[in-house]
Amino acid sequence: MAFGDTLEKVDRRWIFLVVALLVVIPLLFPLRLPLAVSGPARNFYQAVEAVPEGSIVVLAGDFDPASAPELMPMTSSAVRHLFRKNVRIIALELWEGGPPLVDRILHEIGDEMGKKYGVDYVNLGYKSGREAVMPSFGNSFSRTFPNDYSGTPVGKLPLMAEADNFTKTALFVNISAGYPGTKEWVQQVQGRFDVKMVSGSTAVQAPEIYPYLQSGQVLGLLGGMAGAAEYEKSIEYPGPATKGMDAQSSAHMFIVVLILLGNAIYFSRRRANR
Amino acid sequence: MMNLLPVVLTAIVGILIILSFFIPHPIVAEPAQVLQDWAIVIVASGYVLGAANVYKINGEAAIKQQKDWIYKWVLLGSMTGMMVIGFFFSGGTQFLGDGSPFKWAYDYLYVPMQATMFSLLAFFIASAAFRAFRIRTVDAALLAVAALVVMVGRVPIGNLMTHGLPESIQLPTMANWLLEWPQNAAKRGIAIGAGLGVMATGLRIILGIERSHMREEA
Fold first, then answer.
1. What CATH architecture does domain A39-238 belong to?
2. ipTM of predicted complex
3. Interface of B with A in 165-204 (CB under 8 A)
4. pLDDT tens, B105-159?
5. How far apart, in whole angstroms, are the C-alpha atoms of residue A178 and residue A182?
């Protein structure tokens, strides 16, 4: 009991310190734990893999910096995978805090892989209106986004002349952190415009997507950093998510130990009180 | 008449938007598209109202030196600062261009601060796991077991711990099973219930039965 009392009264800053160490140390000295690719992540990879070379894909990056560590790695992997297959990308964002993040990914990977802006990829940028933008975008890309991220009229971008709605696109990739995100894209766009769709989402939001995954409305799902790491493994390009999985493993194990320890103290105290 | 007009307009707009889901003909699609454009403008106007509200609520509290007034000054100062930098010192519509002061503030202030706020969650979850997650009932025990399996099964260490066992009892397999079946069944039930609720409320508003948004009782 005395040990339990001591543990229960421990200053929570000690717990914070241990969490910090368990996250930082594996980032500095990776353990390279083996990673298994789950079914939803495999389906995401296969859906992108099935996109014919040269076709056009729409990518909606609906997140902001708070979710960047989870969602930027999977966005980068999706862009890299699509560019590798010479698929062209039309990107948009419905979260006000996120457009520069998606723009950075497109330009960095685009430059690295010799892609030309306006021809191989376009970033339409942010449009306020949340869910209301979705059906409008489904009807007409150019009417909803008359200008791109940097203010260039979309009429001057050759890629935009080839697709003004989902009928000319092969896949819709949505990376989302919440509202508006995958759930709303399914409800407003997927069925109505008969769109093939895959989703990447935060680990917290991923369970929300499972009903749509099982019904086939969403073809594949990357859930959180684990999903991103599985996708990095699938495209054989390990990145920040793979690196982060060791840190996540140790932090999760520590939380499990804390739950068990907390309950062991609780039960021993309850028994003593009887 | 003053009350009838909004009800009739709501009914017309609601029915038109519902029809546009099923009838792609321009007679329905074109006016529906115009209404959707208006909706986008209305939602965007909400940002102006939201900013005004932040100034009003926090401004009053800051001036009257209510609880946490110092943080309210920080909020108002940061918000005003970002707007001034964006509107007047960042090249107008090119405010997000590389090298602009607004982009600098976004990259080196906004991004790290938001990431920091979110990452604090890990520390508080760890602390709460120790102090608050108590298995007091059978339901709580089921929840705890499911949480532990998913937490360990979704990370590589779960794979490492059980990779020698038959596949059906490996932690990643069990975690995926929990997500795909029991969790999914509950989520689908909630989604169907919420969907029916939304449809019922929508119909009540379109038919003019529900008028609470007009400050009227049904």
1. 3-Layer(aba) Sandwich (3.40)
2. 0.85
3. 172, 176, 179-180, 183-184, 187-188, 191
4. 999 999 999 989 888 888 888 888 877 788 889 998 998 999 999 999 989 999 8
5. 8
